[in-house]
Amino acid sequence: MTPLVDSHCHLNFEPLNAGLDDVFQRARDNGVGHMLCVSVTLETFPEIHALAYDHPHVFASAGVHPNETEGREPTVDDLVGLAKDERVVAIGETGLDYYRSHGDMAWQQERFRRHIRAAKQSGKPLIIHTREAADDTLRIMREERAADIGGVMHCFTESWEVARAALDLNFHISFSGIITFRNAEALREVARQVPEDRLLIETDAPYLAPVPFRGKTNEPAFVRHVAECVANVRQSDMDSIADVTTRNFFSLFRHAVPVSTSDAV
Q1: Range of the domain at 181
Q2: Cβ-count burial of 253 within 10 angstroms (0-12 exposed, 13-18 middle, 19+ buried)?
Q3: Percentage of the chain exceeding pLDDT 70
Q4: Is 23 within a domain?
Q5: CA–CA dist 186, 192 (Å, integer)
Q6: Reported pTM
Q7: Which residues make beta-bridge pairs with 91?
Q8: What is the CA radius of gyration of the chain?
Q9: Are 225 and 210 in contact (CB under 8 A)?
């Protein structure tokens, strides 16, 4: 079977960062060959950068999460500068989140616009987070011509209408462990409809562990359970889903250079 890719995780977060050797071994044992460690602040970016250089099967992104309010505000030049590094394969995560942030969202929208501009300048795709903000997210993507660079709607939980609009904007759709939850039938229907060449899988570890580990610390090894659920929903098999999602990952994140299993230490 083609090794799986966890297209979105946070290896520098507790408790994963306290036992990475074991995390990586369990990932290998479950057929996971690569993972993308995603940035949420400028202050913690050096941790992600170091992980990507220490472990050839780990890639990095550069960005500031839409809900972050304590750290330094990124400029386009900041993000473009970080993205020049060969181990940085994406800009994000970025986007809009009206669930955790309230009031005038102009600051969040402007931050999102800067990330899109940086992605277009750097030639590296976007990782987009959206929660209870789909209309504004899509509007800004259109206004800033995010389709020119493309990217992924990570941890997707929206409707098929939102997915279709994102697909029209040259974006992939990534499913997390949420797809395995009992009450996620509508999301599984979306997963059934996403075109094969736009499908990705992720964990968002250490959050959102899939069934049968729901409520526990998530980790890249568990992306296998996401893949199994997607295979079942699409009436496919694990080999096919592994092949498709891994191929899609390296097609979208074209600066990511795959390594052999023996090199993934």
Answers
A1: 4-254
A2: buried
A3: 98
A4: yes
A5: 10
A6: 0.96
A7: 62, 126
A8: 17
A9: yes
